Amino acid sequence: MAAGVLFDAPGPKTVARHRIYTILTSVVLLGLLGYAIKRLNDAGQFAYDLWEPFVTPRIMQAIGQAWLDTITMAVLAVLGALVFGVIFGVGKLSDHSPVRWVAWLVVEFFRAVPVIMLMIFCFFTVFSSMPIERGAFWTVVLALTVYNGAVLAEVFRAGVNALPRGQGEAAYAVGLRKTQVMQSVLLPQAVKIMIPAIISQCVVALKDTSLILIVFAIGLTKIAKQLPLSANNIVPTTLVVASLYIITNLALTYLANIAQRRFVGEKEVLQVAMVGQPGI
Asked: What does the alpha-carbon distance between residue 262 and residue 256 come to, in Å, rounded to a whole number?
């Protein structure tokens, strides 16, 4: 019913036309895929010797560890970005000008600086005293935390501002402070609006872990850089590493969508039990 308000439901001819477009697009994509596979086969990229390392236990273990390292870096970065985003997103909504301007400056700075530059700076300054591999690990976490956190700060701010003003006014009317209004009323509702953007940033964070390759290869980028040197199989290695990124992103999106449906589907009843209690 809601969708019908925005546009007319397609008629039989339109539905048939859309199906034809879908079939034609699928045929074209399958043709391009077949052509690519044929070119790779003609170039000998499917020879067993090039793919044999991926069934070697030692290399399989290394790939598994690299995959786990990549996921760990992404998870830590996303968790840090969520905390960063909430703090500075709420800071941009503060009634105090100094807090608001400091939050604005921090958010705009980290949104404007490219992630690669953040990684280079962190690697050669903040974590320069650490062992190289450990320093690279925390470089990825810190750089992605502040960058994605700056983006999420704007998402949180926009999500809160998108709520009807009456939500906050009703909470103020029963005597809640602004901090309590934000924590108990506005943020829980705004999160529902922000979930798609949060999911998108999770995927971005996972993919951006590969940018550390510019200073030091770690995680899946380590496999992508080192394995072709010994096995001379850059195309198979690239395909395998890319497939692992795709699988992880698809799994992340699937799980996040399930969480979104369950979260949004729940009927939240916001009850204020402290009416008339001063200082709460």
From this structure: 10
What's this model's pTM, rounded to 2 decimal places? 0.78
Q: What mean pLDDT, rounded, does the chain reach?
A: 83
pLDDT per position as a tens digit, 210-251? 998 888 888 999 999 889 888 888 999 999 999 999 999 888
Q: Which range among 39-53, 169-183, 245-259 shows the weakest confidence by mean pLDDT?
A: 169-183
